[in-house]
Amino acid sequence: MPSAGAPPVEDVFGVVAHPIRRRLLEELAAGDRRVSDLAAPLPVSRSAVSQHLRLMLGVGVISERRQGRERYYALRRNRLAELDRWLARLDRFWAGRLDRLGAHLDANP
Amino acid sequence: MIDGTTIVHEARYRHPVERVWQAITDQTELAEWLMPNNFEPVEGRAFWLDASPDYGTMDCEVLTVEPPHRLRCRWTIQGDPTTVTFSLAADGEETVLRVEHEAIPADKRPSFEGGWPDKFDDLKRVLEQEDP
Predict the structure, then answer these.
(1) Which CATH number goes with the domain that contains A14?
(2) How far, in Å, are A107, B38, B111 from residue B115 at the CA level?
(3) pLDDT per residue over B88-115, tens digit each?
(4) Is the terminal CB of chain A with fewer CB neighbours within 10 Å at N or C?
(5) How far is B105 from chain A, CA to nearest CA, in Å?
(6) Please, what sign has the CA dihedral across residues A14, A51, A62, A38?
(7) Which residues from A are below 8 Å from B119, CB to CB?
(8) Residue A1 resides in a domain
(9) Is residue A2 part of a domain?
(10) Measured between CB atoms, does A93 come within 8 Å of chain B?
(11) Which tens digits make up the pLDDT trace of B32-87?
(12) At what angle do helices A9-17 and A77-107 cross, to 10 degrees?
């Protein structure tokens, strides 16, 4: 589960669920980038990339900084790690519950 | 096991498939091993599961009831609609129960034509690298 104050996991799902945003995340994982760097290899317009970046900034999976006249975008890995933690927790939940089902069946054949 | 954004578990029980089906569809039995609930195995029926403290109370809906082999429900976990599928297969007097919990909301799943899990693994590998 997200810690208090963190955006809902649903939002992180929403970020990684979109193919263009996933490409952006992969690119940013290699290092900080400008919009123009990010847009160049993608089959979508620069303004579309800017819109995706704004959404990703809103959810908190990336950060933005100004350097001279340029804006650079950087990955915030901790926010994405929440998705993994959420899945891992659900995985443990099921392992425990299915063990309990086995014990319940054995006690009530 | 985590497969992309779906949790998959298989368990074998030394009980016949009808007995396992009952244990996953009877309100009182579900409360014994899963969580407090007002479940009824009727397609389209809304129900709740009390998953507190971990996930709070979940609003749910029965999607598919095919006794004694398949039960599919929507569980809304903290605003995220997810899908839980129980599949039961008889193996002699034993039962293999498979649970698939699709944790990524269906309406958020892009049309990757099955390419999602691999791609997600790639992304995860990248993200698991140390922060610079």
Answers:
(1) 1.10.10.10
(2) 43, 37, 9
(3) 999 999 999 999 998 765 444 443 333 3
(4) C
(5) 8
(6) positive
(7) 22
(8) no
(9) no
(10) yes
(11) 999 999 999 999 999 999 988 878 899 999 999 999 999 999 998 877 788 999 99
(12) 110
CATH number at residue B16: 3.30.530.20
Count of structural domains within chain B? 1
Report if residue A101 sits inside a domain: yes
In which domain, by residue range, is B50 found?
A: 2-128
SS (H, E, C) A18-37: CHHHHHHHHHHHCCCECHHH
Residue A4 lies in a domain: no
Provide, as residue numbers in chain B, all residues whose Cβ is less than 8 Å from the Cβ of A86.
Answer: 103
Domain that holds residue A59: 9-107
Please tell me the distance in Å from B106's CA to the nearest CA on chain A: 10
ipTM for the whole complex: 0.80
Question: In chain B, which residues have their Cβ closer than 8 Å to the Cβ of A26?
Answer: 122-123, 126
Structural domains counted in chain A = 1
Q: Which of left, alpha, beta for B92 (phi over 0: left; psi -120 to 50: alpha)?
A: left
